[in-house]
Design brief:
Elements: H1 2-6, E1 11-15, E2 17-25, E3 28-32, E4 36-40, H2 42-45, E5 54-73, E6 100-107, E7 113-121, E8 142-151, E9 156-159, H3 167-172, E10 185-187, H4 188-194, H5 199-205, E11 207-214, E12 217-218, E13 229-234, E14 249-257, E15 263-280, E16 282-286, H6 288-316, H7 320-327, E17 328-331, E18 340-343
Parallel strand pairs: 11-15, 12-16
Antiparallel strand pairs: 1-16, 2-8, 3-4, 5-7, 5-15, 6-7, 8-9, 8-10, 11-13, 14-15, 17-18
Helix pairs in contact: 6-7
Length: about 350
């Protein structure tokens, strides 16, 4: 009964098929020595503009402007420091370095010498990150998540923009578990907070947040509507002891050409939060085949109960002989032939 009713063994099931698109909105202002005063909009901080089931919002950065293809001393490291040219190998490249060695040992500073490299110079120095994050205002950005789903077996289609939602409602609503659980517009600060994190702390080095949409539904006509349920979780590792390579970052460049034809670029090391939209769900609906199969299995199981109980009492109980005496009746014919044991129901005379 538990399996049939509570676990709904009378239903056929199907897994969800989903598609997701997102649209982020918001503005931020920065004023740094590298870039001066600047307003940032969606085209600046959402990188790339479109991706599958996720979006990235840049919250912090290290900018290296006006790089050109030239030669410069490598950044100091055990493999790059040198005393003279013999310590440097022309054509050698270290994957952890910044370029290809020229074979010369040059002054990096008044006290340190390093091997010269061919690279984009000046080299990026990312040892110190801006704190607080440069784009701290990103916590007030909002994202519209459009999610369409289908259960093909049941020919059911749905979307998280529910039938009662119109354009005027979308302009003023914001997701809230208690007051507006069906609004598809989310404030980034609230998403991170729901995942148990502080946005301003996470914005410095970045991370990955999961936006989880559960479309598990009972599609029987008496079960009610099928609505999505949202939850949020941090997905990347945040170990307080083993915190090697924390956060989330990547590099990209913007290229330019000067009036005299020289190619230059501005290198950006972008730190930020990647939001992964994870959709899952299973739908169930009454089906005659699983109903018959599970009902038959239940009845078959019940028929074994009396046989198992009898075996246990006859072989394992201390007073099994008393039960055996009442369980069986022994008959003998007048010719003195062998006794016949007949199994009878309990209490039969």
């Amino acid at each position: 009964m538990y399996v049939c009713v509570v676990q709904k063994a009378y239903q056929e099931t199907d897994s969800v098929i989903s598609s997701v698109s997102t649209k982020v909105k918001g503005f931020a202002f920065t004023n740094t020595s590298d870039m001066g005063p600047r307003v940032w909009d969606t085209a600046d901080y959402v990188i790339p503009p479109q991706s599958d089931n996720s979006f990235f919002v840049m919250t912090n950065m290290v900018v290296t402007p006006t790089q050109t293809q030239s030669r410069c001393p490598e950044l100091p490291s055990p493999s790059a420091t040198c005393v003279d040219d013999c310590d440097c190998t022309e054509g050698h490249s270290n994957p952890q370095g910044s370029g290809i060695q020229t074979g010369l040992c040059e002054n990096y500073s008044t006290t340190v010498q390093t091997c010269e490299v061919r690279s984009w110079c000046p080299l990026e120095i990312d040892a110190v990150l801006p704190k607080p994050a440069l784009l701290a205002a990103a916590e007030n950005y909002t994202v519209l998540i459009k999610n369409s789903i289908t259960y093909p077996k049941f020919r059911f289609h749905g979307r998280n923009i529910l039938p009662h939602i119109n354009s005027s409602y979308l302009k003023r609503c914001e997701f809230n578990h208690a007051t507006d659980p069906h609004c598809p517009i989310f404030r980034l600060k609230h998403i991170v907070s729901e995942a148990g994190e502080e946005f301003q702390d996470m914005a410095v080095m970045g991370g990955i947040i999961g936006i989880i949409i559960d479309w598990s539904c009972d599609l029987d006509s008496w079960a009610g509507k099928c609505y999505p349920k949202y939850s949020f979780s941090r997905l990347d590792n945040k170990h307080h002891v083993n915190n090697v390579a924390p956060g989330y970052n990547f590099r990209f460049a913007k290229y330019y050409r000067t009036a005299d034809g020289e190619e230059t670029r501005t290198l950006m090391k972008a730190y930020g939060i990647r939001f992964d939209v994870i959709v899952f769900g299973t739908a169930g609906k009454f089906g005659i085949v699983p109903t018959i199969v599970n009902l038959g299995a239940a009845l078959s199981f019940l028929s074994l109960v009396s046989a198992v109980s009898d075996w246990f009492i006859l072989n394992c109980m201390a007073k099994s002989d008393v039960y055996k005496k009442h369980k069986f009746t022994y008959l003998s014919d007048n010719s003195g032939t062998e006794s016949i044991s007949l199994g009878t129901s309990y209490g039969t005379e």
